[in-house]
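Q: What structure does this chain adopt?
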Amino acid sequence: MTYKTDYPSIIQIGDCLLSSEIFTEKFCCDYEKCKGACCIIGDSGAPLEKEEAAMLEREYPSFSPYMSGAGKNQIRCSGYCTIDSDGDLVTPLVNGEECAYAMFEGDHCFCAIERAWINGKTPFRKPASCRLYPIRISKLSNGLTAFNLHRWELCRDAFIKGRKEGIPVYRFLKEPLTAVYGEEFYREIEAAAGIFAGKE
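A:
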């Protein structure tokens, strides 16, 4: 595998362009601090692939029992997914706030889809965009795929915890990166991290 570093801030692995921050920045979710607020606060729902939208509809009976009444009502009104102001396919929001697929236990918010997955009710864990956060994936006009780090004040404690524990973003996301893109892709990321570290 050949790693191209045409720009100091980008590493190319195959047809994917990875921001150097994925290798240099540290991150580790601190759920006890945020209590799942990423499922509640935001301008839009979670980005979806077309295949995921179809999966939401097909698997809905498996995870709907875990959803809030407001979430289920939103799905009845807007459907399993919607188009946001940027023209992107996303999960619906309840009153412009929490994701329709959220569930609550006291003041803690969880993903109803993932809860159903944990309990063995569905093979669909949750949208890849949620699993891969804080990496945001976007398709470029030249056919390449961009992996960028998203910085959100809401996740400030996660960056602090990651730095304290010395966990790079790519390592924190090993499981979802491997699940979504495969073991070989993650091995290439690890190799690229080593090459990049040597250039620091």
